[in-house]
Automatic annotation (TrEMBL):
One of its GO terms (molecular function) is lactoperoxidase activity. It comes from Phaseolus vulgaris (Kidney bean). The record marks 75 as: Transition state stabilizer. This is Peroxidase. Removal of H(2)O(2), oxidation of toxic reductants, biosynthesis and degradation of lignin, suberization, auxin catabolism, response to environmental stresses such as wounding, pathogen attack and oxidative stress. These functions might be dependent on each isozyme/isoform in each plant tissue. Substrate binds at residue 173.
Amino acid sequence: MASVSGIVTTTSFCILFFISCLLSASSEPLERPPIVDGLSWNFYLTNCPRLERTVTSHLQKVFKQDSGQAPALLRIFFHDCFVQGCDGSILLDGSPNEKDQAANIGIRPEALQTIEDLRSLVHKQCGRVVSCADLVVLAARDAVSLLGGPKFAVPLGRKDGLTFSINGTRNLPPPSFRTGKLLDTFAARNFSATDVVALSGAHTFGRAHCSTFFNRINQTGTPIDPFLAKNLSKTCPTSQSSNTAVLDVRTPNVFDNKYYVNLANSQGLFTSDQDLFSDSRTKGIVNSFASDQKVFFDSFADAVVKLSQLDVLTGKQGQIRAKCSVANTKKEGLVVTSVVEEDMDLRGHI
């Protein structure tokens, strides 16, 4: 028969071993999507260590005054990355420029100014080492998390492009797309159906102009809730009306999974939204996101990290703009090299 002391010793060892296993497991970095060469999860660790804290703090103040800038910043991010890569080209002035194109109708000047304000704050704090392209990504990430969405890390180290692309804006999928065209457009950039449905969840907050959804009011191709159609008719008597409508009829100012609940009730504002619930390739994904917010949040975070790496400029490519709306002159310098701590990899969710 074992002694009492032996039992105590064995029990203590088991408890310590169990705790040790838990600690070891918790110290393992959470798996994140792979990142392209030149980017890093902690790119500014040494030369601008307070970068993310500075961005978050400023955006908290901005959203307290104007929460509508959150979806605006997320839209700027998508419309920047999908044109010619995440290079800050949407920020560049010109006549014409990307911002003036039909696909970018409604881009808010206030949100563009917020990115420039962030650049000014960060460059004052750290010098000209942080690109406007990275600030667009960080602002979009915080726009999601600060309004109730997931908190996640994004790889950094992008450089700013020197040019913009008018023709590239035609690659942006319009809100009138049916699911087939939407999937094909994204598949060309190696995005899966799950990625597409997750990224569409960005429409869980924000507003849209009448011209972008007027076709939905009397549409027969995709179902629409009669009560929603009636309200939209009052809001938008014509497609040229300057009024706007919320993208999410349930929680328009919160980043959550109610967008997918809306689709299940024929309350998607855009054709491209509602058709996701009609198409057999995406309906199951919509249902899974509607029933489990965490599943949506995880899929959305992964899709954003993937999107944020489209055709990025890194290393000696591009430049770090002294002002986000203007490419640097030769005097200002095309490239400012940043220090990257490759041996330190802070992966995972924040």
